[in-house]
Amino acid sequence: MPGYAWAQTAAHPARLASVLSAIVLGTLFLAATAVFAATSSAGLRIVAAAPLSAADVIVDRDPEAADPGAGWPEQVAEHPDITATAPLHAGTVQLVTDEIRATANLYSISDRDELRWFELAEGEWPANAAEMVADAPTLDSSGLAVGDTVSLLVGDGETTDMTVVGAADIGFRPLTGVQYQFYTSEDFFAGESPLSVTADIADGTSPEAVVESMGADLPDDLHPMTAEEQSRLAADRFAGGAQQLELILLVFALIALLAAALVIANTFTILLSQRRRDTALLRLVGAERSQVRNLVLAEALIIGSIGSAIGVAAGVGAGYAGASLMELTGGGLHVGVPALAGAFLTGVATTVCAAWFPARKAAGTAPVEALRSAPLQNGVRFRSVHAVGLAAAVTGAAVMVFGMLAENLPVSIAGGSVGAVGLLMALRYAISRLIGGADRLLRLRGGVAELAGANLRRNTGRAATATLTLVLGLGLIAALATAASTGRATIDGDLDDRFPVDVSARVDTGSVPAATVDMVRDIDDLVLVETPRTEQVTVEGLGETTLVGVSPELARAVGAEDLAADGTGAPAMLVSEDQLNALGAAQGETVDLSVDGEAHRFTLYASELATSSGAASPVVREEALDAVAPGDERGMVWGTAAAGADYDALAEQMSRVAGADPAITLSGALAERTGLTDVLDVLVGLSLAMLLVTVVISSLGVANTLSLSVLERTRELALLRVLGLTRGGLRSTLAVEAAVIAVLGALLGLVIGIPYGLVGVNAVVGGTAPLVVAVPWAELTLVLVSALVIAAAATVLPSRRAARIAPAEGLGAD
């Protein structure tokens, strides 16, 4: 029997090409995930361990305990087995050049050669607090070079000039989320208490023994540990973030395998229908049902093994390439043999399991029925599996909506998963009914369209399975696109509420220089730029604060209608929620406030506009401020962006403004908006790229359905040629069939994917911000267009095969 199975496989390899392609892609995805996980985890361990590689022992202080003071590293140095120590400091500063201002990380580097963990590629080590070295990516992206002098703004607003005296090729980024990394002398952090101290021990001394003795000598809030153990813990912390990405990849790999299983099951169903006479002859010469079934499963085992082996081999390269793109291959290629073996066995098992039901059905066919010359009809009857799927879909949808309303993400995920499985179980029947409806519409057109409808009606089960694979891929893409668009709109809406002003620049004292204001006004994407009046005043209940006066135009532009209204009573004052509570007032209440010792009446409203400058500053109309505290100081610049503005470009231009004027401080929605949407774009882009594999597998299913349909209808097509149907007519028939499958798949994908996307994103952000529904109609239109492109591509090979059928040859075929 195995020999016969191999002979069947070798005799018609083209018929199994889609099975091979589907399992190769699915297994490739799974193996690539395993290789990516192993390689990136090893790379992360190198990243985590690198700063500790020159040390033998690490001593951490408890961040929750009282600060032991800047001199606590001396307690470590006094240990008799310690030969050298280096405190580890880190801080976040603002890098200011002639072109940009951006956030940078500043680390200490040891003054002792033996405790420095990287080598210089150029220049020299920092000798004092005014010198620093940078890694190569920092120099490239900031436009700096060795010898340049830049300004750093530290936490208290103090400006420090620093000279770049060296460059290092570290080989990785510290994964801090900050673009610029600098290293300076320990002198820069003089008087500050480090969080850790690295130490070298005397030759011939065991790190474990030193750690044990130090633990007895040091205070309880200082924790010694070997460098090796600390490196392992740091690697585990880093790897924890990567595991989320690995989980996403694994989920999409399983989805790809599910699509592959649908394609495989459909292919074997068609093949076994075409081989009904072979099956009948086997039964007539004594083959039992189990032998027929095992023959089919043996074929599946052969093709699954070949496809899985190819997929695993290709997945090793793909996984390493993915880790390389993330610059996490410092430890070289790492391949987990058990994981690859698992990917191979999963691919084989998927193929065999997908072929099980077609094999069982073929084995149960009576010989006399299988010997009929006409092909068997293959519709989809409503069975118990469809009823169970429908019930699961309804139940899952209800649970998902409940989780969304209750803002319970695990419940929403569980309900969505149950509902998705139920839909997959029930959809095949529903799709077959829709295909029947499409046939009735095609009959109205007559000609080629009617022929295509008749072909679809003849085997609705086959077409329904091909459509289901498209629903799986295109539905997930629609869900992701909807979730991304709605998530972005929700973020924008939340930021618009919390940051009414898109751009805010302020100075601590005096007015913003006119040159800086002009630079802000020259930014194209800003539709309104204003320099509000500012005065330092003392308000009873609030203490010393900055009172801001704005024009009615700006108030209307940012939605502060209470401030923009021309009232005849007490002037409006916008304050923060905390300030409103501190004053003991209610929203819209008119109160008497003492401002610089004089009583003034204001109607108070809580508004986010009062925190637009980065600190709580009450806002009034400019004429109200003139009445309270006359003056001409304008210590702020506020700007609002045009609808649809490019916030990345706007942020870059404001960075240049800040670089030209180190005295200003930026705030507003730009920084937070850009960071959040960047993360969202990366995740969605990655997910869409992964789902393309599923769509490719789905298109293979459509192409395979049409190809095997051509083989099954050889005599029919030849007869149509004899009756006058042209080759172009044959191609058009197949194109209409493919278009019906693709359009149904796309429409069902949209109908299912859009609600799933909305519910999913609401489950994630529903508790933090009001959901702003934004269906990306343009992108979803592209999904429909893509489905038609898939349909057109799927007809290329089947059309060529159908067009080559000669009438005489086709009529003689069996």
Automatic annotation (TrEMBL):
It comes from the Bacteria. The chain crosses the membrane at residues 247-273, 294-323, 335-357, 385-405, 411-431, 463-484, 682-711, 732-754, 774-797. The keyword Transferase does not apply. It is a multi-pass membrane protein. Signal peptide: none annotated. It holds the Pfam family FtsX. It is found in: Cell membrane. Coiled coil: none annotated. Residues 251-365, 689-807 form the ABC3 transporter permease C-terminal domain. Keywords: Cell membrane, Membrane, Transmembrane, Transmembrane helix. The keyword Transmembrane helix applies. Belongs to the ABC-4 integral membrane protein family. This is FtsX-like permease family protein. It comes from Nocardiopsis tropica.
